[in-house]
Each structure stands twice: as structure tokens, then as C-alpha cells.
Design brief:
TIM Barrel; alpha/beta; two-stranded parallel ribbon; 284 residues
């Protein structure tokens, strides 16, 4: 299926991109921007921002939409949280997003590494805002509490798609378990914003999207992202349809009317794309 014209982007200046890429390489850090072949990589790097991917570059799960490598993972590097914090300081970031590969091989799913990363960043500058985009920790509520204790400013966990498509798109995940992660964050600390995201174009119907948005609201999710699914390689799920920018605008209107505090919706929107702007809208 050929991409429509609205899915073409102009590349920013190469020098800015290379500066950020060089810093990440020197610091031995991964970003989801690079590992997941994000279409916004050049734009975000040119603005000196990135979503840090902690605990390695290999995932213990093999979701059929995701370009992150799958396979045996090495033990996490204990120095990584400090190196992330140092990179944040060097880049002079004011809003940081930290995510990870899924580490089902670790007892706590990697929750301690998230917590240490948040702690190290805020130890250097308490005014830096930190959003964590977490896996489902196999439903381990104690892992969620470990992260909440260090008080990130926002906790994000993506549903990715509607429940009917989970067996195809996310065969090792559970829809209700993901909703419970979001619900538990709010029950532990209602001052922390929760956020989730959906990819459109995988074969979902409008009625299924509406039902999923309602489930998110009932789980007390306040921030929402909606973006176009793009097939990263021929081995991944094919795109079933391309959603027009106008339709994405309409979904934003619908979601806001339903009760979400803020919504980012568009073909290039990803869960951490312009995350600071989304957060600022509801926190001011």
C-alpha cells in the first residue's frame, strides 16, 4: 500500500541530528527513536530531544507491530541511570521521556531501573519534568508502586490497539492488564498524570476505537495520543488503512468531548512526540 502525501516529512538540518546521535553513542545510550525506526527521529533529534530506551535494545516480547529487536537480553547496566541523567544534563532537557524494552526476564520487570533513572535526573535538577513510558510488568502492582514512589510527573502505558486485535498485534500482552496498570497509578497517586496511546490503521473499526477510549477514561487515563501505524519492515503487520489528517482531527474532538484532559492526534503522533507540550497543556 503506497503512502499518501501527508505521510512525507522534510528532513531537518543534519548537523543537529548528528550532534545528538554522537552524544547518545558516546554515552552508550539507546533511544526508542532509533530502535523503533520512528518517523519523527530526525525532527526530534534536531530539537535536541529524545526518548531514552533503558535496559538494553532487545525485548523479551515480539509484538508484530514493533521494530525493536527481539531476543535474549543482557543484564541491565547498573551505571545506566546515571548516564541517562548526565545526558539529560548535557542536552539541557526540561522534559524527559524514559521508556524501556520489555524485560519479562527480570523479577520486577525493570521497575527499579525506571525508579533509579527518575531519581538520578531529579537529584541533579528537581525542576526537570520526567515522564515514564512503562511496560505492563506482567501485572505486577508492586513494580508500579516502585516507580510511583520516586514521583515521576507522568506515567504512560500504551494500549496500542483495540481488544479484538490483541491476539494478532500484541499476543503476549493482555488488554485488561494494561488498563489495570493505568488505573493503579491513579489510585496510588491521583496527582500523577496518566497517559496512553493507540495506533490507527491496523484494522480497527470506529466503534472499537470509541469503546477503547471509554475503557481508558474508566481507568482514569487523562492524556491520549492517536497516531498512524506504519509497517516498519516487510516482516511486520501490514497497514490496513491510512487515516487522513482530517479524520485524526475529528478523533481529537471526539476524545476531548468524551472527557480526556488533552489529546495529541495526527498521522505522525507517537506516544512521546511533543510530550512536553501535551503535559504543559494540562499542568499549567
Amino acid at each position: 500500500m503506497n503512502k499518501p502525501t501527508w505521510l512525507k516529512k522534510r528532513l531537518p538540518r543534519e548537523a543537529d541530528y548528528e550532534n545528538v546521535r554522537a552524544l547518545l553513542k558516546k554515552s552508550r545510550l539507546h533511544t526508542v527513536c532509533q530502535e523503533a525506526n520512528c518517523p519523527n527521529l530526525w525532527e526530534c533529534f534536531s530539537r535536541k530531544t529524545a526518548t531514552f530506551l533503558i535496559m538494553g535494545d532487545r525485548c523479551t516480547r515480539n509484538c508484530r507491530f514493533c521494530a525493536v529487536a527481539h531476543g535474549p537480553a543482557s543484564p541491565p547496566d547498573p551505571s545506566e541511570p546515571i548516564r541517562v541523567a548526565e545526558a539529560v544534563e548535557t542536552l539541557q532537557l526540561r522534559y524527559v521521556v524514559i521508556t524501556s524494552v520489555t524485560r519479562d526476564d527480570l523479577a520486577d520487570g525493570g521497575a527499579e531501573f525506571f525508579a533509579r533513572s527518575v531519581y538520578e535526573i531529579k537529584k541533579r535538577d528537581a525542576d526537570v519534568l520526567v515522564e515514564v513510558l512503562v511496560p505492563d510488568f506482567q501485572g505486577d502492582i508492586e513494580a508500579v508502586r516502585t516507580i510511583i514512589e520516586v514521583r515521576p510527573d507522568a506515567v504512560s502505558h500504551n494500549l496500542e490497539t483495540v481488544p479484538r486485535l490483541y491476539a494478532t498485534v500484541r499476543p503476549e500482552a493482555k488488554y485488561r492488564r494494561s488498563l489495570d496498570i493505568l488505573r493503579h497509578v491513579t489510585s496510588c497517586d491521583p496527582t500523577i498524570y496518566t497517559k496512553s496511546g493507540l495506533m490507527l490503521g491496523l484494522g480497527e473499526s470506529d466503534e472499537e476505537i470509541l469503546g477503547t477510549l471509554q475503557d481508558l477514561l474508566e481507568a482514569e487515563c487523562s492524556l491520549l495520543t492517536l497516531g498512524q501505524y506504519l509497517q516498519p519492515t516487510p516482516q511486520h503487520l501490514p497497514v490496513q488503512r491510512f487515516v487522513s489528517p482530517e479524520k485524526f482531527d475529528k478523533w481529537r474532538e471526539i476524545a476531548l468531548e468524551m472527557g480526556f484532559a488533552e489529546v495529541a492526534s495526527g498521522p505522525f503522533v507517537r506516544s512521546s512526540y511533543k510530550a512536553r507540550k501535551l503535559y504543559r497543556t494540562v499542568s499549567i
